[in-house]
Amino acid sequence: MVISLTDLPAPVRERLAGIRLALTDNDGVLTDGCVWYSDRGEELKRYSLRDGMGVARLRRECGIETGIITGEDSPPVARRAEKLGITEVHLGIGDKLAVLDEIVRRHGLQPSQVAYIGDDVNDVEVMERVGFAACPADALPQARQAAHHVCTARGGEGAFREFAEIIIAGRVAVASERTES
Fold first, then answer.
1. Phi-psi category of 10—alpha, beta or left, where left has phi over 0 and alpha has psi -120 to 50?
2. Kindly report the CA angle at 107 between 103 and 111, in degrees rounded to 5?
3. Domain-embedded: residue 139
4. Measured at the alpha carbon of residue 126, what is the angle toward residues 123 and 128, in degrees to the nearest 5?
5. Rounded CA gap, 168 and 163, in Å?
6. Is residue 44 part of a domain?
7. Whole domain around residue 71: which residue ranges?
8. pLDDT at residue 2 is higher than 60
9. Which of 136, 178, 142, 140 is nearest to 158 (CA)?
10. Residue in 29, 71, 76, 77 with CA at minimum distance from that of residue 50
11. Any idea what the CATH number is for the domain that residue 164 is in?
């Protein structure tokens, strides 16, 4: 996946250099926002393996960990996080901004050092607080308005991977620009 940063304003590209933690919503970002129930009542969610590779690449290429903050208290989310080695997992959250503040405090970060991708109205406050905010192509208008970047991919279809690749590319580009100066 090749990411061009030319569509991002210079101040947004500069923000990418300072990102130290990536946070994401689950439903509508890592999934397509749908929930399936089996005849036994089991809740099922579909995840993109490409998004999982985005989590791995952020960790490997930049040393950036990923966390999940979701309003749903769903066992599949916990299982997916465990599979990806994500330890910052917050399920059943009503006040995402309070959780962001707690995470930032605990990690000794500033909100400007956090990137967040969300798709719905309950993500907007967090998106407005962080250093870099993105949303999937099919996000609600309020999330699209709060985003620094609207992904070309839809939720559950690579939006998180695109978000991750922008962060990686931004860090590399800014480091290269600083070296050339």
1. alpha
2. 60
3. yes
4. 105
5. 9
6. yes
7. 10-180
8. no
9. 136
10. 29
11. 3.40.50.1000
pLDDT attached to residue 114: 98
Instruction: Please count the structural domains in the chain.
Output: 1
The pLDDT value given to residue 177: 61
Residue 2 is assigned to a structural domain of this protein: no
Return phi, psi of residue 31, to 5°: -125, 175
pTM here is 0.93
Q: Is residue 4 in a domain?
A: no
Give the residue carrying structure tokens 């500069």. Answer: 14
**Which residue's structure tokens are 């979701």?**
70
d(CA 107, CA 113): 11
The token pair at 125 is: 């406050």
pLDDT tens-digit profile of 76-132? 999 999 999 999 999 999 999 999 999 999 999 999 999 999 999 999 999 999 999
CA gap 148, 48 in Å, rounded = 23
Q: Which amino acid belongs to residue 45?
A: K
